[in-house]
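JOB MANIFEST
job_type = single_chain_structure
chain_count = 1
residues = 124
[input]
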Amino acid sequence: MTGRQGPGAGRQRPGDGRGRRAAGPGGHQGHGEGRTGRPRLLAQVNVALGPEPTLDRAREELHAYYRPSSHTDHVVRGLLTTGPQIREAVAAFRAIGADEVMLYCWSPDPDQVERLADAVFHGE
C-alpha cells in the first residue's frame, strides 16, 4: 500500500496539488519554502467628482450595486466626492505602505478621468 495512512488519509493538504503548502500570512510557506519580500498591499476607494447631479448619479449607481447588502448605506456614505478627501485617502493608504490605490469611480461621466487626475495630481 502506498500513500498516506491513518487519520486524515485521503484529505489533500492545502497547496498547489504538488504537495507544497499554500502561502500563509506574509507570504510564508511551510517547510522552509516560500516567497521572499513583503506582499503587495492594494487599496480601493469609491469616488466621484463634479456637480451635485453627477454625485447623485454616482450614489445611485453605488447603492444599486450594493443594495442586497446590509452595509449598503455605510458604503454609499463613504463615497469620496471632493479632491481633498481623495488626496487624503490616497496619502493615508500610501503612509501605511500601499503599493497601489485604486480609485473606483461610480459616475458614468467620462470627464471623471480628467477631474480625478487633476484632483489627485494637481490639487484641483
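[summary]
The CA atoms of residues 45 and 89 lie 8 Å apart.
The chain has four helices and two strands.
exit_status = 0
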